[in-house]
Amino acid sequence: MNISLIDLKVQYKFIKDEIGKVTSEVLSSTSYINGENVKNFEKEFANYLGAKNAIAVGNGTDALVIALRSLGVGEGDQVITSPFTFFSTAESIAAVGAIPVFVDVDEKTYNIDVNKLEEKITDKTRAIIPVHIFGQPADMDEIMKIAKKYKLKVIEDACQAIGAEYKGKKVGTIGDIGCFSFYPTKNLGCAGDGGMIVTDDDDLAIILKAYRAHGSGENGEEAFNIINKIGEDSIEETSILNNSKVDETVYNPLKYYNYLIGYNSRLDEIQAAILRVKLKYIDNWNEKRIENARYYEENLKRLTNIVCPNEKEDRKHVYHMYIIQSEKREKLIKCLNENGISTGVYYPVPLHLQKAFNYLGYNLGDLPVCEYLSRRTMAIPMFPELTNEQQQYIINYVRSFQCE
Ligand SMILES: *Cc1c(COP(=O)(O)O)cnc(C)c1O
After folding, report:
1. What pTM does this model have?
2. Is the CB–ligand 1 distance for residue 183 below 6 Å?
């Protein structure tokens, strides 16, 4: 039996007709950028999360970069984050000219250790980026409390955790800004790249919209005024765009007045159409992931050399990945692979030890928990359509390996 780590084909078969219909509609409409699907998807996504504003962007990495820019984080600032995450989380901090400051993770949840956070705060610290890693929410109450005490901004990296909940609240809506990715293998994935930024702050929403589109047009002017604290009255007087409300993609004169140095980071209309179809199923798919996790747990938890995921009671883990720990990881991976079972290693190199971050000056031993985990954690197949039969096949090999 061959089992992929994430099998997107079963899901595609299930929604093929719906996807075919909406994508061909977009193609014949020739409205490929900022059309009705993007606008509606932003509304539906905000609604799903219970957020006030959702701003679609090109990918999850851009979501983080633009979020940091919108908060004015830049040169010389420090941003605290987890070292046990995908590279993007810290890359985005470096990309805006700021310095990533890594805090070790909790051995059980793999999320940032809130007990070690406060000691890393300096007078240069501007923000915290907690990551809801593998689909389990970070300790948001403690993080928000510390952020409030030191007047820091919080950007949630919810790229792996769409639909996950912390004390009944969807992640991404707890901090100042939440960032999501629609990379194909994420719990809500499109057919290419895509991302979303959510915030309840209307001023931030305008700034975010401006940055994603070259700081131009109405949002650019408004964002410029907000950033520079120019009052409502003076907007009227200085506006050169007063009577030109046009919203055409092909010719929009507002596009050619730029107020900020921004980015070109859009969600394509065709991706938005696909995501609108898939958003309807996300709760159902997440529930199936949770059921699959329960099945693994029941069958693997008694094995002495395997550590199963630890779920905290007050939160909903959406199992983007099913991560186990094994002392003999490389051998177990070889055994599973030889029998047709795909595996993955998340994450083999903690971010503070990545070559690209050499200049930050960290050494092996500085963040012992994530270093320990990086030698032991591995992912076994997890996706909503995974069957009990497939799971049993995987479980049998994990078990028999155990007995060797
Ligand atoms: C996937 C991911 C990102 C980046 O998203 P892209 O859409 O690939 O740019 C950022 N952070 C985390 C934790 C991710 O898993």
Report:
1. 0.95
2. yes
